[in-house]
Design goal:
390 residues, alpha/beta, 3-stranded mixed sheet, 15% strand, elongated
């Protein structure tokens, strides 16, 4: 089915451009399949008196609700940008994932309560091969949904569909545990139905919390993935005249709405007009080929001043002696008769935030000793996260 969907969407363009259509299709399939599983398991659970089967049925109902929220999330994410939301509405996909996580947690709590009641007030479970058949069919259906949603998530690189796929696999495992409990009670005469319901409830709670963490992270503004950083950096480094880069910042406003800013270093001797033209070309190509709105700041770099290069190398060596992660860029020099001012940026790891004064003091002391005159430093400390791979 996923191959058929892929072929149909290819006729309309790149599958990534049709993520809303794919997401809505996944939501519809999830709603229908989970409602059918819910009705089947609920009937069997009520007839047999099995709280674990009923709990598993309620889990399918929560999955149907989750699929509905996913469907609405992808639908709302299609809305184009407007005056109040110039970056579009793609983050609705993240919000739908957060709503799904909240529903899962609520269902887990309710199932835990009913399972605890079954432990405190145990009742025999009426065994039937119909229950076994329904649970077995549910496992097969959930495994099918797992492979289906995993394929779609890879097709459009969607964390929401990836989480949906993982949830389907979790359901297959949970239902397998319920089936095992049903068979154990029938053939070993051991009352574990309530305990298995507790296990399923805990499993649901864990899945909901994990999903919530995954969807909250991009909403809070998580760092760009290493793959995305590498993609941008490799592209920029491959361009003529580019000597280096720093301060890469990526802003995620939802799938397909990524904005990035970057400083690129070019020789000061290069024509400013040619550098400006190259930067314009880089920004256009990055949007066209990678779907990233890239804004590039031009930093001219002095390459022919031997004195400046020597002092820059000395400062870098001192930084490396302090910590191998310390990097510098945007190095400038203002010379005077009595002292020299060095102006530059240092990429600072997060765990060294309290050592700014120590770094500056050591640089000034050692450089002053090496040069035989007073050296002052004017340092801007940048987060290392924006300068990795320098």
């Amino acid at each position: 089915m996923t191959k058929l969907m892929h072929r149909l969407l290819q006729k309309k363009g790149d599958p990534t451009q049709n993520r809303a259509a794919i997401g809505k299709m996944s939501g519809m399939v999830g709603i229908v399949s989970n409602l059918l599983l819910f009705l089947g398991k609920l009937a069997v659970g009520l007839l047999s008196g099995s709280v674990s089967i009923t709990a598993d049925a309620m889990n399918n109902l929560s999955d149907a609700s989750s699929a509905l929220v996913t469907l609405l999330g992808f639908k709302l994410s299609e809305k184009p940008a407007d005056a109040d939301h110039p970056y579009g509405h793609a983050r609705f996909e993240y919000l739908s994932g957060l709503a799904v996580a909240a529903l899962i947690v609520v269902i887990g709590v309710e199932l835990g309560k009913s399972s605890l009641d079954k432990i405190l007030h145990p009742q025999a479970v009426i065994f039937s091969w119909l229950a076994v058949a329904v649970l077995g069919a549910s496992i097969a259906a959930k495994l099918g949904l797992f492979f289906f949603n995993r394929a779609l998530s890879k097709m459009i690189h969607s964390t929401t569909l990836s989480a949906t796929a993982q949830d389907s696999l979790n359901d297959a495992i949970a239902t397998g545990a319920v089936l095992a409990a049903t068979l154990v009670e029938r053939f070993a005469d051991v009352r574990i139905d309530g305990w298995m319901g507790i296990a399923v409830a805990l499993f649901i709670l864990y899945s909901g919390i994990q999903l919530g963490r995954e969807t909250i992270s991009p909403l809070l503004g998580e760092r760009a993935s290493p793959e995305l950083q590498e993609l941008i950096v490799d592209y920029v480094r491959s361009q003529p005249k580019v000597l280096g880069y720093h301060d890469l910042m990526v802003h995620d406003y939802g799938p397909g709405q990524r904005f990035a800013s970057l400083h690129v270093e070019m020789d000061e001797k290069e024509s400013p007009l040619e550098c400006h033209e190259l930067i314009d070309d880089m920004e256009r190509e990055c949007l066209k080929n990678h779907g990233i709105h890239l804004v590039i700041h031009y930093d001219p770099v002095v390459t022919g001043d031997l004195e400046l290069c020597r002092l820059r190398d000395s400062a870098f060596e001192i930084l490396q002696q302090m910590d191998g992660r310390l990097q510098l860029h945007d190095f400038r020099m203002v010379q005077g008769q009595e002292h020299t001012n060095l102006i530059f940026d240092v990429a600072l790891p997060q765990d060294m935030g309290s050592k700014k004064s120590e770094i500056q003091t050591r640089l000034e002391e050692e450089l002053s000793r090496q040069e035989g005159k007073r050296i002052y430093t004017v340092i801007t400390f940048d987060p290392e996260a924006f300068n990795e791979g320098k």
